User: Fold NADH-quinone oxidoreductase subunit F from Venenivibrio stagnispumantis.
Amino acid sequence: MRYYPNIPDLNANSSINLLLRRAKENRTTNIEEYITTGGYSALKKALTRFNPEDILILVEESTLRGRGGAGFPTARKWRFALSNPPPRYLICNADESEPGTFKDRIIIERDPHLLIEGMIIAGYTLGAELGFIYIRGEYPAGAMILEDAIEDARKKGFLGKNILGTDFSFDILVYRGAGAYICGEETALIESLEGKRGHPRLRPPYPANEGLFGKPTVVNNVETLANIPIIVTYEMDFMNIGPMGYYGPKLFPVSGKVKNPGVYEATMDLTLRELIDMAGGMKNDKKLKAIFAGSLAVYSADEIDIPLDYSPKGFGGTGTTIVLDEDDCIIDALIVIAEFFEHESCGKCTPCRVGTYEQLNILRKFQNGTATEKDIELLEYLGKNIPVGSICGLGYSASNAIMDALRKFKDEFIAHINGECPAGICF
Ligand code: NAD
Ligand code: SF4
Assistant:
């Protein structure tokens, strides 16, 4: 076995033990251990008892939504691809790079066969013969673990020609990204996989209709695909897991000022408040100030009784939860996010390229005490206009956190204009 570098000792806990059944405490990279704990039995069941349409119906009934953040119904995406003639491709998007997001990492590094098994079943359902795992360059150990696990699965006959003696053949290739956040955007990912510069394409056409090499391609997130063996195993009982319409397990990466940062697994009837409790509550029993849902939204302390589901009032997204306490400065936190977007904008659209640069500079004025009321107006102007002139999710969301913070924490902006940082960090 190869030496795997840089595997952090992530804290993980679960109230339901489905996605984290093997990964909660241990790393189950050994295929024998995976098999003796029930692994690859969902694949055997899928290939021997179900035809692809049966599995599609199970995924439809499961209400599974994409766990990469957008929450798009998985079965609907699969149906779009199936409405196009083969060859079809499956891509697992393992380029998770949203600030504060490290949930896919735990599956990749601690239970890689769960993802591989999910991909094989998805490949069977989609009539695909080839799948790719596009993994971010910053996960070198994850890439090695997946390569080794894929090789072990090939040796056991779970991958390759005539899987388990059927006429279904499928293989998986691992492709490492080179550290660009934009390559997690599905069309930039496809460009990168085709050997081109990772710039997003205009959509439509969506990849399900015209993706890799112009062929119908399903791009699914790691956690989404890891749900597939669980759905096949539980069949209709999957609908007993979690609230109506949002069935199944969900992972939540929690970081910041909680006692036990880590990855948590729960059903989606959990509230944001309960998730913070699950992570041990506030560190040093400080007062909660805000939650950053990655870079996409900011919640204030009086908004944490929302469910962690995909309903209009739910938390949705990747489940990323960055917890700020009374000692944290909203401006300071926004600057981290703004620096990220300014750095990661691919530069194709002028409003995104220039706007992310400008909003960072304006936030820095709040930090160094030179901002005026006019700068609030400028931030609002950029927040309205960057998304309008952008073609991909990065540009659409680059100002979300700032706009949310302006609505919910305007007093902190005003305080900085008046030369005061409520957390005592700036100036
Ligand atoms: P989107 O809502 O445009 O699309 C979601 C998925 O549904 C895509 O796969 C898309 O191809 C498919 N789809 C949507 N409409 C379709 C149609 N009519 N026909 C066929 N397929 C269709 O979202 P997006 O731009 O792909 O992704 C944005 C999301 O990515 C954000 O919500 C953000 O949370 C998330 N994100 C996650 C990370 C991470 O690290 N996990 C990083 C950046 C962004
Ligand atoms: Fe690139 Fe930004 Fe345009 Fe997306 S919106 S394509 S990241 S410039």
